[in-house]
Design a protein that fits this description.
By secondary structure, the chain is mainly beta. It has one helix at residues 35-41, and strands at 12-17, 23-27, 63-68.
């Protein structure tokens, strides 16, 4: 039970959308993109198959959608961090 999440989604994909439903960015396996930048935060996911996005955003409405790779299902834990 990773991070205390029962029935955790084994290979999540996260997609971030702006308020007009345009894709801002997406990620499947966090080490595939932004690896160094994410590691520099100290907040990297424990599993290489986890998804992570590091992005600066203007104040606005956004939507993050988590899906399972290849149609898999499960529970996803989404964390959002704000910095000044």
């Amino acid at each position: 039970m990773p991070l205390g999440v029962k029935n955790a989604l084994p290979d999540p994909v996260v997609t971030l959308y702006d308020s007009n439903a345009n894709v801002i960015t997406a990620n499947d396996n966090w080490k595939d993109t932004q690896r160094t930048a994410i590691e520099n935060t100290g907040l990297q996911p424990p599993n290489d198959l986890d998804a992570a996005i590091l992005v600066r955003l203007a104040a606005c409405d956004y939507t993050a959608i988590v899906t399972g790779e290849n149609g898999r299902s499960g529970v996803a834990l989404v964390e959002v961090y704000a910095t000044q």
